[in-house]
Design brief:
343 residues; Jelly Rolls; 4 helices; 11% helix; globular
Length: 343
């Protein structure tokens, strides 16, 4: 972990706080064993079995968590149907035991969503396996609002009503290169209007037009997102859809947002080469989101990929819906969706 440069005092008070916050976020919901009890049967001198500071008790390292242990979790997807999921009914389906969508140059999806009918989730642990092909961009929406639900929060709070952020945050990351890949030259096509090549697709077929936004807007979502993209630029980062903040914590960053201030980088978790080694392009990725209070932890294949501490009341979202997004071109496969609520 690399910490941002600064004076020694600042180094301790910012980077140290970042690590402490992340640790407390996990500890806050974990059942604790009795304090500082000696390990049973640990031989003298064994790793992790050192004597306590006061001459009594032994300390042990935590056992590695098993990602496949879903005890206490609720499965949100049955592997065969889209029962208990809401979407446009056209672009999302089930393929090879996974929730599936495919966006092509000839038939682009634009930016569209599918969301779970589980209802609102505030503090939780969410596990998802995702696989992409091509240049697909996707993501896990959580603590998210439904854009057409007038009773749901739309952030920033000052932006509610006319002049606020666009439904679903269609512009997203893809207004440039991603939009070109999507082939959506028609206005309203998921934020890709007028961008990118206007000629035929590489196949020689005409470029398609994304679904009508008037039809798709009822399924649009906004709010926190665990970002996923098969080009390996964004996986695991904290992105915020439809609020105007966009990319908040890039892959490998620990970021904090405080009221009335620009966000601050507290620490760096890994360099670019290391981050790339964590991602499984064209293959399955184990992804996990732990949301606890104002702290969000994003894990990618067993590695902490990004952390965001949101103390800005203008944007902070305490609860919301769970869903998925697709944009750009390529396929996305989503399976093994497990949720454990803490509240």
């Amino acid at each position: 972990m690399k910490f941002r440069k600064g004076k020694v005092g600042k180094f301790v008070s910012t980077a140290g706080i970042a690590v402490a916050i992340a640790a407390l976020a996990c500890l806050a919901y974990s059942p604790l064993a009795s304090s500082q009890q000696p390990a049973q049967g640990a031989p003298a001198g064994a790793p992790g079995a050192q004597a306590g500071r006061g001459g009594g008790g032994g300390f042990t390292h935590a056992a590695a968590a098993d990602y496949n242990d879903n005890n206490g979790f609720l499965s949100l997807f049955d592997g065969t149907t889209l029962n208990n999921w809401t979407s446009d009914g056209t672009h999302w389906s089930v393929k090879d035991g996974a929730i599936y969508a495919n966006s092509t140059c000839e038939a682009p999806t634009g930016t569209i969503y599918i969301y779970s009918q589980i209802g609102l989730a505030g503090d939780f642990d969410l596990k998802v396996r995702m696989k992409g092909t091509g240049m697909v961009n996707s993501g896990i929406q959580y603590r998210s609002w439904l854009s057409e639900d007038l009773n749901s929060p739309h952030y920033p709070r000052m932006g509610r009503g006319p002049g606020g952020p666009p439904p679903g945050g269609a512009a997203g990351r893809g207004a440039g290169a991603t939009g070109a890949a999507a082939g959506g030259g028609a206005p309203g096509g998921g934020g890709f209007a007028g961008r990118g090549p206007q000629g035929p697709c590489p196949s020689g077929q005409p470029r398609g037009t994304p679904p009508d936004r008037g039809m798709e807007s009822k399924y649009d979502m906004g709010g926190p997102q665990y970002d996923f993209d098969n080009t390996d630029r964004y996986p695991g980062q904290f992105y915020e859809q439809a609020s105007g903040r966009g990319i908040v914590a890039w892959p490998g960053e620990v970021v904090i947002a405080n009221p009335g201030q620009a966000k601050q980088l507290l620490a760096t978790l890994a360099d670019a080469a290391t981050l790339t080694s964590w991602f499984h392009k064209d293959d399955w990725n184990d992804e996990e989101v732990i949301a606890r209070g104002h702290t969000y932890l994003h894990f990618l294949n067993g590695h902490l990929a990004s952390v965001f501490v949101d103390n800005d009341p203008m944007y902070y979202q305490s609860t919301g819906h769970i869903g998925f997004e697709i944009e750009s071109t390529g396929e996305v496969f989503i399976k093994d969706i497990y949720l454990k609520k803490f509240n």
